[in-house]
Amino acid sequence: MTTFNKVNERNLKTLEQYVPIVDRVHGPNHPEFHDVRKVFEEINLKVKKAGADKPELDNEFKQLREITDNYSVPGDVCESYEAVYNMLSEIDKAYHG
């Protein structure tokens, strides 16, 4: 199994739980997170459809890096928000690694 698949296995279930909650809590003050959620949902869908194969996610990760300013965590958010960015960054690195 590739590193990308291992990282996904470890992070996607947690992200599925965290992303909607962080969006609801922080979305009003950080509207960019609505876009993060949308792109994450696209990534998650493609990963599930691909199964053991590596999906084509270059565009999605490029979008995430732009939206999040390379996963820079805002100073006024909770640990869950920070955890989402850290997990997305880890998946991005594994994908391109």
Describe the overall structure.
By secondary structure, this protein is mostly helical. The protein has one domain (3-96). The protein is 73% helix and 0% strand. The protein has 4 helices and no strands. It has helices at 3-26, 32-50, 58-67, 79-96. The longest helix has 24 residues, at 3-26. The protein is globular, with a radius of gyration of 13 Å.
Short description:
The protein has 97 residues and is an all-alpha fold. It has helices at 3-26, 32-50, 58-67, 79-96.
Strand content: under 5%
Shape: globular
Kindly state the number of beta strands. 0
Mind describing the biggest β-sheet?
none
The helix fraction, in percent, is over 70%
The pLDDT mean sits at: 95
Residue runs with pLDDT of under 50 for 5 or more positions: none
* Total helical segments: 4
Topology as H/E string?
Answer: HHHH
| Count of domain modules | 1
Termini, distance in Å? 14 Å
Radius of gyration: 13 Å
Task: Determine the structural class based on helices, strands and strand pairing.
Answer: mainly alpha
